[in-house]
Amino acid sequence: MNVPLLDLKRQYAQLEEEINEVALEVFREQRFILGPRVGHLENQIAEYCQCKYAVGVSSGTDAILVSLMAAGIGQGDFVLTTPYTFFATAGAIARVGARPIFVDIDRTTYNLTPSLVEEAIWGLRPAEREKVKAIIPVHLYGQCAEMEAITSIAEEHGLIVIEDAAQAIGAEYEFSDGKVMRAGSMGNYGCFSFFPSKNLGAFGDGGMVTTNDEIAYERLKSLRIHGAKPKYYHKIIGGNFRLDALQAAILAVKLRYLDQWTEGRQRNAQLYRRLFSQADLESRIGLPVEKEKRHIYNQFVIWVNNSRDELRDYLRQQGIGTEVYYPVPLHLQDCFDYLGYKRGDFPVAEEAAQKTLALPIFPELTKDEIQFIVKTIKGFFDGRGN
Ligand SMILES: *Cc1c(COP(=O)(O)O)cnc(C)c1O
Q1: The domain 8-255: what is its CATH number?
Q2: pTM above 0.90, yes or no
């Protein structure tokens, strides 16, 4: 049996007619850049994410970049974030001229550890502490970071919060007073990606920034068109961070199915849990820990105590697709040598990079396929007998 990590063709097969229809409408309209279709999607996403405003942009990466620009983060500023995330999170910080300050993650959720964020801030000399301007928590794999603690640290130190919600559209977080909020609505800016492998994927690149602040909203809208306001008059320097009308039209169709797909992912996660517990593999692998309110399972990532790479090779031979998110934590990337970090600085992120493995979780996965995956993993460990 062949089970890919992700099979987008199955999703397209469900929506083919609807999507082809809107794509043809856009072709007939010949209006490709921004415009009413992007405006419509922005309203829909703002509502879905329970935010006042949303601004369509060219990618999740550009969503982070333009948020940093809108927040006025630049040369000489420090921005706290996790070393265990997709490169774009820290790449955007460096691109505006600021310095990423990495903080280690929690080993059960893979998200930032708030107490270590505090430690990192207090560990800086006072002159440097002044330079810390923002924090970018990442809601990794579809589960929210500990936003109550993070927003309270941000408040205490006067930091801007930019949520990297690229993997977490529709994920929820419950505060201790019982209030439930959606990813992207808790910080000053929420950044989303419509990269095809995300839960809401476009037919190409795309992204969105959410905010509740009207001034930020106006700045974002201007920054995505080179800082123009009005057209051809520039008080600030922006870039070309626009979302295509074609992507917006397709995304507006797909958004109507998002909750149903999320339920499919959650159902698959539950089936994995049941089968793994029956297979008696607790000593060999750790399953994702659902700590926050609504985990949307962009990824289903297991922790493999021993022989992760051998397991991955074995699964590949048996026709099962997996991925390692992420093999090199960001503080050890060559391009960040200049930051002066070394191996051992963030032990949990480093260990996660060596032990985690993402299994197929996409909504259209069948029960038989999940059974086959768990059986194959069981077979691998039984065969090794160690
Ligand atoms: C995908 C992703 C991004 C970047 O989004 P793109 O649309 O690919 O530019 C940023 N951060 C995280 C955590 C992501 O998963």
Answers
A1: 3.40.640.10
A2: yes
